[in-house]
Design brief:
By secondary structure, this protein is α/β, with parallel strands linked by helices. The longest helix is centred in the last third of the chain and has 19 residues, at 267-285. The chain folds into 2 domains: 4-209, Rossmann fold; 222-324, Arc Repressor Mutant, subunit A (Orthogonal Bundle). The chain has helices at residues 20-36, 89-94, 96-108, 119-124, 140-146, 172-185, 187-197, 222-233, 241-247, 252-263, 267-285, 290-296, 302-313, 317-324; strands at residues 8-13, 45-51, 57-58, 64-65, 69-70, 80-83, 111-114, 132-133, 151-152, 158-161, 164-167. A hairpin with a 2-residue loop joins β10 (158-161) and β11. It has 14 helices and 11 strands.
């Protein structure tokens, strides 16, 4: 346990367009820790929100958010520096002053973190170069393309790499903060806070289970685009490489090379993802058995579908249905 005298300063950087829950989630974890800790010990946290100029910011929900610190005037680095995400992330990452002050304060902080698309600010500051990191599943490709020195892990709920921690989207900031709380004060306090907030101490599965499958830009036209569209529309067809190559009148080798070049992944990987996407839709919207869905989506057997589902979504088909079935 940390003594009351060892108060740890937490600074959360916010800006216009910040996601309210990216801020409120970590705040509630730190706040509840004070209530759950033994009264004679205390949690040792002092949390402040900071913006450039110390002005209130407009959140992505158009709700004003007050702050308690001017980022440019904070001289002493905090124990923990966190950058929240939100739809204003691109403007924040392009703000040279904001990025400069994040880099300056991070240099003296014990640890630096981001929630959701706050990772783009850390990346722009060079704090993720040569490190593993994550962000919201819908922005992982953008982060990887924009910052090739960052090793992006798209399925992770949060990633630790040395003194830098990054989380997936929105509520994953709660997972990350519970982990920081556990580091500082042990698992019992973190578990008590998680119970009160009615969240998992450790969320089962990665963020792939929440994502919709986003493939890259389809081929611009011609026979290959029609083939890709037919794979998405009829995943139960014979979609082996020989069958697909024969449809286009190509050799297997030439077809596989052309497909990978223009689609960005191998034919086999694309087919598996298309079949998993179709199965996810059926698991969410129909009462059909897993056996029936496996056949409808071209998997052949339930075990084949289960293995593919775990690879693509991070959870089994049954677990996915339990969490996301509608009605």
């Amino acid at each position: 346990m940390v003594d009351k005298a060892e108060t740890r300063d937490v600074l959360i950087v916010v800006y216009d367009g910040v996601q309210l829950l990216d801020v409120a989630g970590p705040l509630d974890v730190f706040d509840r820790a004070a209530s759950e800790a033994a009264p004679e010990v205390g949690t040792g946290y002092r949390v402040r929100l900071a913006s450039l100029g110390g002005r209130p910011v407009a959140t992505s929900a158009d709700a004003p958010l007050g702050v308690s610190a001017d980022l440019s005037r904070v001289r002493k680095p905090p124990d923990t520096l966190m950058v929240a995400g939100g739809r204003g992330y691109a403007a924040a990452a392009a703000d040279r002053d904001l990025v400069r002050h994040v880099r300056r304060l991070s240099a003296g902080a014990r640890r630096t973190g981001s929630v959701c698309t706050g990772a783009f600010v850390l990346a722009e500051a060079g704090l993720l170069d040569g490190r593993r990191a994550t962000t919201h599943w819908a922005f992982c490709s953008e982060l990887a393309a924009g910052y090739p020195a960052v090793s992006v892990e798209p399925d992770a709920i949060f990633v630790r790499d040395g003194t830098v921690v990054t989380s997936a989207g929105v509520t994953a900031g709660i997972d990350l903060t519970l982990s920081l709380l556990e580091d500082d004060f042990g698992p019992e306090l973190a578990r008590a806070v998680a119970k009160f907030l009615v969240v998992f101490m450790q969320r089962p599965g990665g963020q792939s289970q929440f994502s919709t499958w986003l493939r890259g830009e389809p081929p611009r036209g011609g026979a290959l685009r029609e083939l890709v569209e037919s794979i998405d529309a009829r995943p139960a067809d014979d979609l082996s490489v020989p069958a697909l190559a024969a449809r286009l009148g190509m050799s297997r080798r030439h077809f596989s090379r052309l497909f990978s070049q223009q689609v960005g992944t191998s034919p086999g990987a694309y087919v598996e993802r298309a079949r998993v996407a179709a199965a996810r839709a059926l698991l969410e919207s129909t009462p059909d058995s897993v056996d029936t869905i496996a056949a409808q989506c071209g998997f052949g057997t339930v075990e084949t579908m289960r293995r593919a589902f775990v690879r693509e979504a991070g959870v089994s088909p049954a677990a996915y249905r339990d969490r996301f079935r509608r009605g």
